[in-house]
Amino acid sequence: MLNLPTELLRTFIKAVDLGSFTRAGDAVGRTQSAVSLQMRRLEELLGAQLFERGTHRVKLTEEGATLAGYARRLLALNDEAVASLRRPRVAGCVRLGAPHEYMASLLPTILGKFAQSHPGVTLEVTCDLSKNLLERQQKGEFDLVIALHDQGQSDGGTQVHTEPLVWIGSVDHARHEQQPLSLVLAPPPCIYRNRILQTLGRLDRGWRIAYTSSSYSGILAAVRAGLGVTLLAESTVPTGVRRLGEREGFPEMGALDVCVHGSRENASEAADCLAEYVACSFG
Hints:
InterPro entries: LTTR, LysR_HTH_N, LysR_subst-bd, WH-like_DNA-bd_sf, WH_DNA-bd_sf. By secondary structure, the protein is α/β, with parallel strands linked by helices.
């Protein structure tokens, strides 16, 4: 059975997250040519092409995207095992800001595993809209922020995942068939809200805001009650809702980038450790 070297996987993920072999080399302490050799070795081990050739920015093939998901989980498990056994353990308090929908879906599991492997770290978690979190981080309120961005606009954060966007509606009502389209939205500056209104405006499609809530649970309750439709990152779509696509007359909405933002003013070993763990756990 083939064993994949973790040093190759770590360099691979750095290249994916940072968008270039040169920056990945800086992150892992290797030259650009050494990173290229590592990636060629990884491709030879797997017998698969992982990167699209001839592109200025690192772009994954379908096989590369598949490996990225597995690699993040393997590295997260590796780092969890190492952190749980190494002494001294990382300690301190990390003030984390994250969008509501991720705290209700993916992050509880990720943070739970992190807490088990780093019992000396205390987490203070605050939920808000991505743009609000980043503004508050600039004021010194957070050590680490997980935020959603339009693709290619990370604002200095490290991209850790790309999320396809999905329309959802009620399974018990047909409000999605009515015109004008009834929407369930968060208030500004919600990135989902901006994407919906810009797209519908470009398509000259009629709409009305039927319900506004700043909480993920409030938005889901309104959608399930049939008050309207909304847009969510695919990994945060819960059970008990109807996914809506082109067959139901809903346009393709593209994707968003999930980025991790550290704080230069409040950098700490605990915050850096959590940032690395979150980055490796997504996907």
